[in-house]
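Course exercise 7: structure representation. Students receive a sequence record and must write out the corresponding structure in token form. The form below is the worked example handed out in class, using Immunity protein 50 of polymorphic toxin system (138 residues). Read each field label carefully; the graders check that inputs and outputs are placed in the correct fields and that the protein name is recorded exactly as given.

STUDENT ID: A-19
EXERCISE PROTEIN: Immunity protein 50 of polymorphic toxin system
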Amino acid sequence: MAKIGVIYTESGYYGELTPVWMIFDWSGLSDNIWQKTLYIPLSGPFERLELEDTYDDLTAVTVPLSAFTRRKDKEHYIGVHMPTVAAFAQEHSLHLDGRSIDIELINRLVLRISDIEDALLLDVRFHIQNGGFTDGVI
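STUDENT ANSWER:
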């Protein structure tokens, strides 16, 4: 069963809540999750988490921007290419003895909200930089 929460921070003069991190915990998902693209719904409301709520025994990895993807038929979802996340985790978690983390131990993804926003804009940026959309509408 998957669980999604968001960590907010107060910003601005009035202390408005701004989402900073999306936390995706899973258990019971398929064993071959690391060979797939995982689509996470972006429609809320999401459970509000405090940073302290993540201090538990779950092993986490931060999703790099390069792992995000989109699909036109999944408009309100962000895709996470799990093979890219696995490679990132293994590359950046080398132990002193030269071994990397066992990705099967990871059961939490940490997604930066700003990276999700950037990934959702990438398609628009690509078309703007390359002369617009084929139908002439930007």
